[in-house]
Amino acid sequence: MNCQDILVSPVDAGVLTITLNRPARRNALRNQTLREIGEVLADAAGNPEVRSVVIQGNPRCFAAGADLEEMRHLDAVGLQQDERPALWRCIDEFGKPLIAAVNGYALGAGLELVLHCDLVVAGKGALLGLPEIKLGIMPGAGGTQRLSRQIGQQTAMKMVLTGEPVTAERAYELGLVSQLCVPALTDEYAFKLARQIAVQAPLAVQAAKAAIKACQETSLSQGLRQERQAFVWLAGTEDRNEGINAFLEKRAPHYRGK
Amino acid sequence: MEYQHIECYQEGAVGVLVLNRPAQLNSFNELMHQEVAAVLKAWENNPEVRAILMTGNGRGFCAGQDLGDRAVNSGEIAPDLGQSIDRYYNPLIKRITGMPKPVICAVNGVAAGAGANIALACDIVIAARSASFIQAFCRLGLVPDSGGTWLLPRLVGRARALALTLRGDKVSAEQAREMGMIWQVVEDDQLQSEAMQQAQQLSRQPTYGLGLIKQAINSAADNSLDEQLELERDLQRLAGRSEDYREGVDAFLNKRTPEYKGR
């Protein structure tokens, strides 16, 4: 695949790494960038070699927002017809684990991309925020929804209405980040986490991810029913037998995604 | 670049920053803050600068905030002191403590108020015998800022920190050293040469590793032992990948003097 805005590393130990690569624009997420991420993820969804995916930026910047040049010319009708929501949906619909490695700035659309990920590893001192309000606009890619569901109304209101970012340390306390580390090791530790997940049974991982994501869509009783269904469904997989047998026989399991 | 209230130059790999408003005991006004910030920011990312030496011109090191900027007339509303702290003092303290290379302070005379705490925020503090430290804030009805209330109890213990900040006593260089507030006292006429020699010596060491040590020590006060052990592991992992580490081991094994590049 030929990408302008991102670098895609060869699959390593089941992990595919996507690097946002428009440093001169502080990795601003234009439509092209999202399209490329979506295409790579669609490809990865069908590739059994890929067990988990890391999205990272550079040491100074994960992504500093949307591309304002691209957005400023769009009027209400233009925005209405914009393909952008569909591009975000492609990322949201990716069924394998998606891990964000965040250093430096993750602002606006950058934080919304982080919120699309299942796990977040962040370097200390990174800044995460939704500064849209300072531009007379508001988050438009799930920022108000995903952020308030993850960290609660008070903190979400404060972040969205003032536009002030929080540090990675604070984001960790808020539950927005699963792991904090020394910035120079963020990408490496995100990769490590991705690899740790990549050795698990792929179907179980995907079912578990879907079950947790369903949390935001359904009532508890409905969620519990869906969880049970997925749990029962996994009993039909070879990997489930392999996993339990390997445990009882005190050996490492060999999962095949079947 | 020309500066009005500071002097700065490089001697070898040492960046020297001299506070230079001697008539006002080098007290800070806005312009001086901006100049100091610009220099430190430039040095932070400059690999040619591998140690920083801060000192003052004249008989004082720094008398903190220039109160001439702060005349309060009875009829007027109170100035917002929090604003200059937000804008200048706090970023300065963070810049010094976060500097990924050693910062040495040669305290040439009185260090009062924020001036004392700026000196104490440096990594190695060497004072002239006639220098002194005063937490003068209490005398004006203020609270020690620039990290004073955080740093002092860690340096000298709670009992002494409280007495020093509530009484505003003048502490001599020798007393400060005895309390563990500073590292060393030297004779007045030897201060600059001694501080420069130590800075030069540090500037030839494995700078990247020294920066990591500083980060570890400065993080310790906030971390639990478990967290600190993890941080040490992470920083050691990084240090172990540095060129200087290879050079150090190689020099040791081959019984030669290492030549560190600071990376």
Concise summary:
The complex is a heterodimer of chains A (258) and B (263). By secondary structure, chain A is α/β, with parallel strands linked by helices. Chain A has 12 helices and 10 strands.
Q: Which characteristics define this entry?
A:
heterodimer; A: 258 residues; alpha/beta; six-stranded mixed beta sheet; four-stranded mixed beta sheet; 12 helices; 10 strands; globular; B: 263 residues; 16% strand
Describe this structure in words.
- The complex is a heterodimer of chains A (258) and B (263).
- Chain A is α/β, with parallel strands linked by helices and 258 residues long.
- Helices cover 47% and strands 15% of the residues of chain A.
- Chain A has twelve helices and ten strands.
- Chain A has a six-stranded mixed sheet, sandwiched between helices. A four-stranded mixed sheet of chain A has the order 4-6-8-9.
- The model of chain A has no long low-confidence stretch (mean pLDDT 95).
- Chain B starts with 5 loop residues before the first strand and ends in a 10-residue tail after the last helix.
- The radius of gyration of chain B is 19 Å and the shape is globular.
- Chain B has a six-stranded mixed sheet with strand order 1-2-3-5-7-10, with helices on both faces. A four-stranded mixed sheet of chain B has the order 4-6-8-9.
- With 263 residues, chain B is of the alpha/beta class.
- Chain B contains ten helices and ten strands.
- Chain B has helices spanning 30-44, 81-98, 114-121, 148-156, 158-167, 173-179, 191-203, 207-220, 225-239, 243-253, and strands at residues 6-11, 14-19, 51-56, 60-62, 103-107, 110-112, 124-128, 132-134, 170-172, 184-186.
- Classes of the chains: A alpha/beta (258), B alpha/beta (263).
- At the A-B interface, loops of A face helix 9 of B.
